[in-house]
Structures are given as C-alpha cells and as structure tokens.
Amino acid sequence: MTFSSAEQFINADVDDRRACVIADVLMIGGSGFELPELLSSRGRNIPVILMTAHDSDLAREQARQLGAVGYFLKPVDDQALIDSIRWVLSKGRSKKQ
Known about the structure:
Layout: H1 6-10, E1 21-24, E2 26-27, E3 30-31, H2 35-41, E4 48-52, H3 57-66, E5 70-73, H4 78-96
C-alpha cells in the first residue's frame, strides 16, 4: 500500500502485525524521522525503514535513536531493501507465534 502522507497512513486501516513502513526522511508535510514517535504515541508498533538522498552522520544517528530498523541511501539497493523488509516481517511473525 502507498500513502501520500504520514497522516494518511496513520489514519488508514492497516494490520500492524503484518506491516512495515518505508519512508523518506524528507516528506511533504513532515519528516520520516517523526513517524516512529507518531506511531508510538498512537499505540502502534510498526517497524520503520528510512531512506534518504541527503545522508549525514546526524541523520544516521537520529534514525538509530528513533529505533528505525533500517536506513538506506538513495538510490536504494533493491535487493537489500527487499531483504530488510523480509527480515522485519519474519521477525514480527516469530514474536507473535
């Protein structure tokens, strides 16, 4: 599923148990850095993978501190992103069983 904004995603009917968010650090109307806290404040536990074309030590540290499960530089390595998504989803399933 795709969403045009973080707010649209937050308000969508998404099964948190089978989800992971892939967000750009720079988004219209906000920042991908805001997503982990926004999700947490609404009682949602969804892993967040961030990507950016504007890498910096500060951005990497901020992503780490916010608990992002992945941080990718653009252009993103397709296979690495797919592997990360699979890892996140399999980790979530094994916790629920």
